Amino acid sequence: KNAPDQDMAGWFIPKDVLKNKAFKQVFDSYMSDDRKMTKLDVILEKNPYGNDALSTIKQVEASVERALPETNLKDASFGVSGVSSMNADLKQLSDQDFNKTVLYMMIGIFLILVILFRSLVMPLYLVGSLILTYFTAIGVTEFIFTHFFGYPGINWAVPFFGFVILMALGVDY
Asked: What's the predicted TM-score (pTM) here?
């Protein structure tokens, strides 16, 4: 409560309230039996599956990291969970894996096409057209969803899975 930064300030709970039977039920609901772990529910006003919620998770984590050193819990560890947190973790993994996936798939497709066509020109043309098709499809999809349906953008999973599907179908046809 005495933090110099008002965003970090806490609140005061009188001792007689802490001894109140009704208030103790809160501890049973939000703390472990040994009182060494607690749960804080943060309910977002945003769509828990949307991009705004995913960025809010990072803000929640940063707030807790910033607040803990100013308390008696400075040595405590914490975790964030829930639908938005899991999707934020999946998005982070997908973003990290996307570049590797693109590289490996393009190299693999190119090498297979070189072997099949016994040429370098035709595989370069096909791989180039696949890349152009992918970026065109993502651009058109983003345009449609933002301008006609009013969404802030496409879901984080669309580029990754769209790439895999378009590459597989593009090579076949």
From this structure: 0.58
